[in-house]
């Protein structure tokens, strides 16, 4: 049966008369913005009529930015006496504090957005003294997780400072979302009808969105667990889309079974006996298809080469011999230390098989080390490659030049600090992202830059290869994440919707989805096919700093600068649990290969010392 809950964005039943706005001559900036909108939509007659009445002849030919036009058209109304704002907020606060305990906590959610818009109204209309007084009196009463936003907001004391300010643009261009029970909302509407506070009513009608639900009002702890986002909570509509979080079945690879060396060697140390290889299917068991898995062809991938299939089968065979982890069998770890790095190391990545290490530096360099005794070789020259038998079984060994092998390789190309690196699954490619707004693709065979991807216009904070390779995703200061393919120099998808920097990205294990973590304190899950977000998850009180999917794809772990470590269910977008509250921010997360243990690493006192915390999550 479909839920009877309804979404309402305005308290339309509250009918209150307000004083009409005083008629004043519009300023030139406002007129030009309106004329640009008319020109954009080819409303020539209206444009000419407005120019004639306003006596404006010269209109800039360049279009103003959307934020500039929006800021002009969404001007705040002047409610006359600016001293009434303080009294109106105090009356609203008293109403919340005196409400029934069952409704008090949900009603309290309106205090912060109303306070912010009151402050912005006063600043916009030139009442600087009253705005500062309002901030000093009630700013300290807001929830602790909004303190940073309020500090930035308090720096805006004049109207011209509002233009281009990130937090003011966000509040003026978006409605603050509040989830509220039907009975709680009815209580609020009765209060507004009785008090007839035009200041409060106008703000609620124009800048707040109420996502109403049936049932009992939430408690303080329930509200706090999902609060903290810049623009409020996620709506139910944000998390209604179906997510294929399962893993599709692996293709039925056929291969020649290779016997272990100890089984093929003769007892007397003679020449090994050649056994006839037998054909077998690695997936010869009838496995059930996961109903939550996406179709195999939902997202296209290049066909695997024979060498890739062999490596994949080898990895799957090794995983079948894996010891099950638990309380009595915790995983072992391997730590590496970079000596004499002079605080210049920004990021590091170890390949999936722990054979190579890539590090990004503040001086724009990338260095790759071998973690084994074997050194890093480079491919032979083109002239030398012509003499190699391409059909030989050891062709990969033959194309590499033993003479120039080195324990580490230095990669030059970026013109700014390197913020992250990512290995391709086959370890032949490396991605790096930088402050210079580019992403570079490096060959680990020739040790040269193959492509410089230019699409972002600000620093790129993170980059990740798809688990199957070919695709990769980036996160940037320009508030977007972008999906790329290695053979395309332009992005395939632009994931736009965050209200601040996108700091972290992570591919889902089935490569159909991308998770993004932002400084707007939200996590979004994006569909790589449609480019739309299919999940919005709120609950962190500071910027997201780490993301990790469980191996089977059902769960997502997130960590932020608020020292919280949260576990999410992707099936519905619900918060499952807060796993821990660390003493300092967590910077990295990783699930074990069987998905039963989660490790988190944090930095203590600015020393690169990682502590690991383990949790049995099911």
TrEMBL record:
Pfam families in the record: TFIID_NTD2, WD40
Biased composition annotated in UniProt, kind: Basic and acidic residues: 279-289
InterPro entries assigned: TFIID_NTD2 (IPR007582), TFIID_NTD2_sf (IPR037264), WD40/YVTN_repeat-like_dom_sf (IPR015943), WD40_PAC1 (IPR020472), WD40_repeat_CS (IPR019775), WD40_repeat_dom_sf (IPR036322), WD40_rpt (IPR001680)
Biological process according to GO: transcription initiation at RNA polymerase II promoter
Gene Ontology MF terms in the entry: RNA polymerase II general transcription initiation factor activity
Alphabetical UniProt keywords: Nucleus, Repeat, Transcription, Transcription regulation, WD repeat
Annotated localization: Nucleus
WD repeat extents: 411-444, 453-494, 495-536, 537-578
PROSITE patterns in the cross-refs: WD_REPEATS_1, WD_REPEATS_2, WD_REPEATS_REGION
One annotated Gene Ontology cellular component of this protein: transcription factor TFIID complex
Residue span(s) of domain TFIID subunit TAF5 NTD2: 80-208
Chief place where the protein resides: nucleus
Chain spans, region Disordered: 1-26, 49-71, 260-305
Chain intervals with Polar residues compositional bias: 1-16, 59-71
CDD domains: TAF5_NTD2, WD40
PANTHER family the UniProt entry points to: CANNONBALL-RELATED, TRANSCRIPTION INITIATION FACTOR TFIID
Family label: Belongs to the WD repeat TAF5 family.
Name of the protein in question: TFIID subunit TAF5 NTD2 domain-containing protein
Native species: Nezara viridula
């Amino acid at each position: 049966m479909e839920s009877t809950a309804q979404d309402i964005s305005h308290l339309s039943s509250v009918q209150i008369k307000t004083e009409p706005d005083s008629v004043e001559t519009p300023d030139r900036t406002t007129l030009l913005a309106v004329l640009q909108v008319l020109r954009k939509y080819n409303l020539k007659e209206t444009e000419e009529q407005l120019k004639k009445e306003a006596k404006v002849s010269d209109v800039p030919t360049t279009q103003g930015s959307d934020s500039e036009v929006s800021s002009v058209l969404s001007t705040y109304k002047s409610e006359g006496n600016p001293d009434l704002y303080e009294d109106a907020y105090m009356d609203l606060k008293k109403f919340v504090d005196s409400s029934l305990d069952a409704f008090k906590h949900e009603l309290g959610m309106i205090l912060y957005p109303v306070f912010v818009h009151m402050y912005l109204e006063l600043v916009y209309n030139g009442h600087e003294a009253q705005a500062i007084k309002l901030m000093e009196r009630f700013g300290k009463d807001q929830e602790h997780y909004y303190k940073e936003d309020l500090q930035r907001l308090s720096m805006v004391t004049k109207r011209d400072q509002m233009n281009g300010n990130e937090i003011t643009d966000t509040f003026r261009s978006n409605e603050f979302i509040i989830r509220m029970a039907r009975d709680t909302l009815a209580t609020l509407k009765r209060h507004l009808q009785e008090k007839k506070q035009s200041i409060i009513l106008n703000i609620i009608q124009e800048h707040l969105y109420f996502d109403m639900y049936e049932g009992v009002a939430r408690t303080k702890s329930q509200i706090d667990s999902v609060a903290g986002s810049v623009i409020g909570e996620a709506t139910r509509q944000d998390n209604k889309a179906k997510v294929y979080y399962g893993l599709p079945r692996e293709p039925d690879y056929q291969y020649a079974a290779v016997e272990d060396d100890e089984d093929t060697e003769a007892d007397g140390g003679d020449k090994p006996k050649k056994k006839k290889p037998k054909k077998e299917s690695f997936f010869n068991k009838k496995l059930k298809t996961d109903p939550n898995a996406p179709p195999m062809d939902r997202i296209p991938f290049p066909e695997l080469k024979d060498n890739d299939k062999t490596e994949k089968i080898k990895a799957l065979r090794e995983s079948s011999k894996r010891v099950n982890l638990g309380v009595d069998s915790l995983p072992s770890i391997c730590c590496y230390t970079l000596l004499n790095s002079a605080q210049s190391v920004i990021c590091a990545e170890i390949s999936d098989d722990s054979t190579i290490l890539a590090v990004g530096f503040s001086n724009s360099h990338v260095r790759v080390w071998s973690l084994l005794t074997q050194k890093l070789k480079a491919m032979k020259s083109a002239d030398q490659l012509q003499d190699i038998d391409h059909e030989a079984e050891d062709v990969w060994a033959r194309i590499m030049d033993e003479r120039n092998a080195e324990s580490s390789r230095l990669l030059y190309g970026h013109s700014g600090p390197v913020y992250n690196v990512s290995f391709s699954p086959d370890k032949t490619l490396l991605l790096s992202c930088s402050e210079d707004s580019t992403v570079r693709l490096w060959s680990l065979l020739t040790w040269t830059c193959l492509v410089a991807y230019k699409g972002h216009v600000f620093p790129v904070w993170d980059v990740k290869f798809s688990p199957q390779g070919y695709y990769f995703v980036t996160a940037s200061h320009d508030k977007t994440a972008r999906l790329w393919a290695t053979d395309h120099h332009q992005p395939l998808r632009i994931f736009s919707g965050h209200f601040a920097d996108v700091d972290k990205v992570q591919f889902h294990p089935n490569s159909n989805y991308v998770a993004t973590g932002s400084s707007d304190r939200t996590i979004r899950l994006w569909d790589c096919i449609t480019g739309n977000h299919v999940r919005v998850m709120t609950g962190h009180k500071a910027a997201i700093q780490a993301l990790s999917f469980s191996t089977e794809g059902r769960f997502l772990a997130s960590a932020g600068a608020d020292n919280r470590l949260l576990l999410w269910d992707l099936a519905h977008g619900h918060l499952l649990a807060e796993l821990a509250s660390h003493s300092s921010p967590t910077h990295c997360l990783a699930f074990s290969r069987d998905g039963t243990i989660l490790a988190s690493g944090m930095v203590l006192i600015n020393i690169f010392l990682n502590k690991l915390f383990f949790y049995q999550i099911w």
